[in-house]
Amino acid sequence: MRILLVCVSICIISLLQSCNSSELIENWKNPDIDVFQAEKVLVLAMTSDVKNRKLFEKRLVDLLKDKGVNAVGSDAFFNPEFTSRPRTEEELGDLERAMLSEGFDAILVSKVLGAEDKVTLVQSYRNWDKSVNGFEDDYYAHQGIYVEDEEMQKYTVYHAESALYCICPTKEREIIWKGSIDVTEPDNDRKAIKDYISMLVWALEEQELLIIGPVDY
């Protein structure tokens, strides 16, 4: 039976990857967490491309809401000037406390790192837990993405990462899940975003994170 389930899972993954341009390269889930369902999750995309950031967040928020998740895009919470300059760790601490007061208990962060050398990036991903311990660390380390130039448009493969963080007031704030996804059709922004989100939501649903219930693919 276990072998059959593994075979079915492999078939599902193969089918998903054959139908879109995104591939789940790395996948890590906190071993101390079995199921996680948020009361309210902030969806945050980190990129200097404002148009695609808004499109990504809206599409992901809409899809999560369709699956019963109380999701909110960053524009509904962040001050429009928040990403105009680098923020200090103290300011990010204030941000998390403000989120808690607004009822948020989770943050789903996605960012495009855009590079061609996937081997180097995969190794970098494997070392992530040595330096990133929570949302504040992640945002602080990568907020320069907001003001980068358009160099990433030249890449033939987008390398992107998503991470789910708990900011629960009753326990230590921690990383719940992190995934590394390659998008191999960067010339079509809308399709790349659609395929990335499909893979992201599938990964979360498969592991019962945010989306609790049977997989309906």
Number of domain modules: 1
Q: Compute the gyration radius: what is it?
A: 17 Å
Helix content: 25-40%
Strand arrangement, largest sheet? 1-6-5-4-2-3
How are the secondary structure elements laid out?
Blueprint: H1 2-19, E1 22-29, E2 41-46, H2 50-66, E3 71-73, H3 89-101, E4 106-112, H4 118-126, H5 135-142, E5 158-166, E6 174-183, H6 189-206
Parallel strand pairs: 2-3, 2-4
Antiparallel strand pairs: 1-6, 4-5, 5-6
Helix pairs in contact: 2-6, 3-5
List keywords for this structure.
about 220 residues, alpha/beta, six-stranded mixed β-sheet, 6 strands, about 40% helix, globular, disordered N terminus
Describe the structure concisely for a colleague.
Helix content is 38%, strand content 20%. The protein contains 6 helices and 6 strands.
Commentary on this structure:
With 217 residues, the chain is α/β, with parallel strands linked by helices. It has one domain. Helices cover 38% and strands 20% of the residues. The protein is built from 6 helices and 6 strands; from the N terminus they run αββαβαβααββα. α2 (50-66) links the parallel β2 (41-46) and β3. The longest helix is centred in the first third of the chain and has 18 residues, at 2-19. It is globular.
